[in-house]
Amino acid sequence: MVNQQAALNTLFHALADPTRRAVISRLLKGAAPVTRLAAPFDMGLPAFLKHLAVLETSGLIRSEKQGRVRTCHIDADRLAAAEGWLGEQRAIWQSRTDRLAAFVESQTAEEKNP
């Protein structure tokens, strides 16, 4: 359980940055070399590589090097873990709001028909 929480913390830390989210969005379209991933961003390659390192540490992406080209791939299972956690939270809050709505409706009905 502690390891799972730590993994989620690392995952959401990685997703907290807009540059890293943009990289994830790009990789959802398919694998890409680092130079192509870095091209749209106004930052030096060393700074961009730090973003990739955070994404790799979180497990959201993996990379492989062939010759001088390093290609990144997304790990959809890690994204599914984030989606699963968010879905659980959504279900909890939906249940709470449903109970609140039912309570308000019952109180309103009692006020109209004492």
Automatic annotation (TrEMBL):
GO molecular function: DNA-binding transcription factor activity
InterPro entries assigned: ArsR-like_HTH, HTH_ArsR_DNA-bd_dom, WH-like_DNA-bd_sf, WH_DNA-bd_sf
Domain named HTH arsR-type: residues: 1-94
Name of one Pfam family that matches: HTH_20
NCBIfam families, alphabetized: HTH_metalloreg
Protein name: Transcriptional regulator
Organism: Sphingopyxis lindanitolerans
